[in-house]
Amino acid sequence: MFRFPAMKAVVCLFLVAVSSALASIQLHPLSDEFINEINSKQSTWKAGRNFDVNVPTSYLKKLVGVLETPTTDLLPQKQHASLEAVDIPEFFDARDEWPQCDSVSEIRDQAACGSCWAFGAVEAMSDRICIHSGGKSQVSVSAEDLLTCCSACGYGCDGGYLDAAWSYWVKSGIVTGGPYHTTTGCRAYTIAPCAHHVVSTRPACSSGGGTPACVRECDAGTRKSYEQELTFGKTAYKVPKDVAQIQLEIMTNGPVEAAFSVYADFLSYKKCSFTLIYRMATSSGVYQHTTGSYEGGHAIRILGWGVEKNTPYWLVANSWNTDWGDNGYFKILRGSNHVGIEGSVIAGIPKL
């Protein structure tokens, strides 16, 4: 004779085991099912397809490259005083504040290299040279030079340290140099732009050939002197993990570099299908981590902030070219150190 209570217990245990097994099955981070899951769990941003579903996950991990700085190499912290006397606006966009500085509106492409740590740094450095010179000095600081020649900064295309990058600018200097095949600076980026994303006119990305060699000479044909093209930082520092401090730093001195933890859902941050008249109103939504595995640390440039549908955000420039996200930009939740965005803000003052 069957003992029904015992039988029910066995069935229940079986169902629990099946449910646990199903829950442990992770959806492919680029699949339509995963994108649908993201959108079903939140409403502050819209996920969509940026990368082809067949892009290897190993390549996606290559796009992030921030390493944790050893405690012995951390930069000193700089604190702005008398915050009470400062009127911090609800909206701020460095592109509107300093329209004379071309670099502030530039989206670069790190291509098939984990060089985000170098890109976030040189982008902010370029902005600050222009801002602090009153628009007189319009230069692009070379991502190639920092990536390849700073031996203390980490492992080149396999990741680097934010603090060390800014220290290198102060101690050794970084020459000028823009995107791939440009000749307006000393050392242009030598890794070709590629089609990270589904909609792109660029050639397909390869797995990458490693970090280029350090060459302390300007590119052939530029007719420039490496020593004369060096730019230097006067100071480099960490900004406190405080929203008002970060805002005041950006308002006063220009965009900053920051790092955050990338999860699989971030890869699908996608521009909305509609466009509004004013840039402040154009939106892909405010990113908040919803689901997906940890992919690595990523460096970017914060250039402003605002509020959208009662959700405060940071306005951020990425370095995955203009095909990704909102023409290369994204918004991320502000005020709660979401995925660490407010805990690793680095900046410096240029030596002019």
Automatic annotation (TrEMBL):
GO biological process assignments: proteolysis
Molecular function, one GO term: cysteine-type endopeptidase activity
InterPro entries according to UniProt: Papain-like_cys_pep_sf (IPR038765), Pept_asp_AS (IPR025661), Pept_cys_AS (IPR000169), Pept_his_AS (IPR025660), Peptidase_C1A (IPR013128), Peptidase_C1A_C (IPR000668), Propeptide_C1A (IPR012599)
Span of the signal peptide: 1-23
Family according to the record: Belongs to the peptidase C1 family.
SUPFAM superfamilies on file: Cysteine proteinases
Domain Peptidase C1A papain C-terminal: 88-349
PROSITE patterns per the UniProt record, alphabetical: THIOL_PROTEASE_ASN, THIOL_PROTEASE_CYS, THIOL_PROTEASE_HIS
Residues that span the membrane, as ranges: none
SMART domains: Pept_C1
Keywords assigned: Disulfide bond, Hydrolase, Protease, Signal, Thiol protease, Zymogen
Domain of life: Eukaryota
Pfam family, one: Propeptide_C1
Protein name in UniProt: Peptidase C1A papain C-terminal domain-containing protein
